[in-house]
Design brief:
It is a single chain. By secondary structure, the protein is mainly α. The protein is built from 2 helices and no strands. The N and C termini lie far apart (85 Å).
Length: 67
């Protein structure tokens, strides 16, 4: 049994020292943060355009509708 525990300990040590997954995880976290920032900016931009258009429509009247 001590042989299998030694192998298990060796594998766990090698797994703990492996950093390849950590770099991938960092890239995923960065991409998720960029996506969240993009979505928030898009929502804010959409609201700003909607508010500006509403102000212009109140000042100059609504555009004619095609019928």
């Amino acid at each position: 049994m001590s042989l299998s525990i030694a192998k298990l300990r060796e594998r766990l040590t090698a797994f703990h020292a492996d950093e390849r997954g950590g770099v991938s995880l960092e890239y995923v976290v960065i991409l998720v943060l960029i996506a969240i920032i993009g979505i928030v900016a898009w929502v804010d931009f959409k609201e700003a355009v909607r508010d500006d258009a509403a102000d212009e429509y109140q000042q100059f009247g609504y555009p004619p509708t095609e019928g």
